[in-house]
Structures are given as structure tokens and as C-alpha cells.
Design brief:
This protein has about 180 residues and is of the alpha+beta class. Helices cover about 25% and strands about 35% of the residues. It has a domain at about 20-50 and about 60-130 and about 170-180. A hairpin with a 2-residue loop joins strand 2 (about 55-75) and strand 3.
Length: about 180
């Protein structure tokens, strides 16, 4: 398993990460053993909700959660990319993604230069941005109450025929691990 916790778990791992760092680092090392000059894994987890009222009646309430990972490998001066929502399969995709990068490189025109990464200093950090008010755990009833307040204010004129109010929130979580130690 490459995840420390699944998105459906009621807990977050103590590291605050979805990815199991040691397993991902092993996968990145394996990519380099196969000839990659650079490899990275980028995870994006999105948790969102959408609620809509039309004329003070609940029209929709949709919670959502998506988790996806992209593996990028630079080998022989060309990129191989693999994206998936199946996080468990990621380590098994290393070899085929390295082969893909090498196949792309083999088809490169002699006029084209191989892709190279720019030399930049490596900066390793973790950033946890916290909003002034975290609305992720706002229950549906509270969202509806806020929307009804908006509806009542907007509909307070005889010339208004219909009012639609909506609530949307999302939380984005990104993780990046590279063969350069980030």
C-alpha cells in the first residue's frame, strides 16, 4: 500500500500525508535504477461539497472526494507520464513509464534537443496553510440555513420571480516527492 491512510478513513496519518513516503521513495529510486535521470510523484486530493436551493427548496446536495496521482519520469531526455486514481498500483507502473520515456526519446528528431532540467537549488519544506475559518465540517443543515437567509434577503421584493442560491467549498491537498529529495 502506498497510502498512509485512505481518503475514507476518519483519521489522517500522523504525518498529515496520504502517501507512504518510504514506499514512494523506493519507487523513485527504482525509476533511477532503470535509467531515469529524474522522477516525481504528485498527489492531489480534492474534497468538496455543493449545495443549491431554488426558491427555498433544496435542489441538490453533493459531497465529493477525488484522489489522483501523477508519475512523471525523465529518461534519455524525454518524459514518460502515468496518471491514476489507483494509488496502490503506482509502484508497478514505474517500469512501463520509464520504457515510455525511453520510447519517446528514441523517436525524437535529431534536430530536437533532449529535455533537461534546469539546475536550481533543492528546497525541501512542508507548508500547512490554514484558513481563518475551516468550513469542511459544516453540516448540511447549517449550509441550508445560510442559503435560506440569502434566499429570503434576495426574494424580499415583489419583482423577484425566482431565486437560486448556492454553496460550494473545496479543500485541496497536494503532495510532491521527487528523486531529488523533495
Amino acid at each position: 500500500m502506498v497510502m498512509s491512510a485512505s481518503p475514507n478513513d476518519e483519521h489522517k496519518p500522523s504525518t498529515g500525508r496520504y502517501l507512504n513516503q518510504s514506499k514512494i521513495q523506493s519507487a523513485l529510486d527504482h525509476a533511477q535504477d532503470l535509467g531515469a535521470s529524474y522522477a516525481e510523484v504528485r498527489l492531489m486530493a480534492i474534497t468538496d461539497s455543493s449545495v443549491a436551493l431554488r426558491d427555498a427548496k433544496l435542489e441538490r446536495a453533493i459531497p465529493g472526494q477525488e484522489v489522483g496521482v501523477t508519475l512523471r519520469i525523465l529518461a534519455d531526455g524525454a518524459w514518460g507520464v502515468h496518471s491514476t486514481t489507483d494509488l496502490v498500483s503506482l509502484p508497478s507502473q514505474i517500469e512501463s513509464t520509464v520504457r515510455l520515456a525511453k520510447a519517446v526519446a528514441a523517436r525524437r528528431s535529431s534536430k530536437d534537443k533532449p529535455v533537461q532540467l534546469a539546475e536550481v537549488p533543492i528546497f525541501e519544506d512542508e507548508i500547512h496553510w490554514k484558513p481563518k475559518k475551516d468550513v469542511r465540517n459544516t453540516d448540511l443543515q447549517t449550509k441550508i440555513e445560510h442559503l435560506r437567509t440569502l434566499h429570503d434577503s434576495a426574494a424580499d421584493d415583489d419583482r423577484i420571480i425566482s431565486v437560486t442560491c448556492g454553496w460550494s467549498d473545496e479543500h485541496l491537498h497536494t503532495e510532491l516527492m521527487t528523486s531529488e529529495g523533495m
